[in-house]
């Protein structure tokens, strides 16, 4: 337990730095701003990888093309969360009734 201090500080620093970069670049803004930043990142990453390949002199496998729309992912996540929250009271009632029935059956 005595040697965890430096590692914890390092992890907190890295996490804080990542959060700052995400906030500063606009990833934590609205969905339009996040989509714009993601588009810029998609455009900037391949040239950077090409430069690294030339510098280090080895070949990387081709990156798969992924059709990812953050707006759709966000909307489906929100929809799933709201759906789960809206069915929560009904599910709790059903589980309560099942539990009471189980206890009644045990008491027989």
UniProtKB/TrEMBL annotation:
Which is a GO BP term held by this UniProt record? Answer: cristae formation
Summarize the subunit comment: Component of the mitochondrial contact site and cristae organizing system (MICOS) complex.
Superkingdom of this protein's organism? Eukaryota
What main location does UniProt list? mitochondrion
Protein name (database record): MICOS complex subunit MIC13
Sequence similarity: Belongs to the MICOS complex subunit Mic13 family.
Record lineage: Eukaryota, Metazoa, Chordata, Craniata, Vertebrata
Function of this protein?
A: Component of the MICOS complex, a large protein complex of the mitochondrial inner membrane that plays crucial roles in the maintenance of crista junctions, inner membrane architecture, and formation of contact sites to the outer membrane.
Q: List the InterPro entries.
A: Mic13
Membrane topology qualifier: Single-pass membrane protein
Query: Where is it located?
Result: Mitochondrion inner membrane
Source organism: Oncorhynchus mykiss
Task: Establish whether keyword Acetylation is in the entry.
Answer: no
The cellular component terms of Gene Ontology attached to this UniProt record, alphabetical and capped at eight, are: MICOS complex; mitochondrial crista junction
**Which controlled-vocabulary keywords does the entry list?**
Membrane, Mitochondrion, Mitochondrion inner membrane, Transmembrane, Transmembrane helix
Output the Pfam families linked to this UniProt entry.
Answer: QIL1 (PF15884)
Establish whether keyword Transmembrane helix is in the entry: yes
């Amino acid at each position: 337990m005595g040697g965890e201090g430096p590692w914890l500080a390092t992890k907190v620093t890295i996490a804080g730095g990542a959060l700052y970069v995400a906030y500063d670049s606009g990833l934590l803004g609205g969905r339009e701003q996040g989509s714009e930043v993601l588009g810029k990142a998609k455009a900037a990453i391949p040239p950077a990888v090409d430069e690294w390949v030339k510098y280090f002199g080895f070949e990387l496998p081709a990156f798969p093309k992924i059709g990812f729309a953050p707006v759709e992912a966000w909307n489906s996540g929100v929809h799933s969360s709201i759906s789960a929250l809206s069915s929560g009271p009904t599910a709790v009632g059903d589980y309560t009734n099942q539990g009471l029935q189980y206890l009644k059956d045990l008491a027989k």
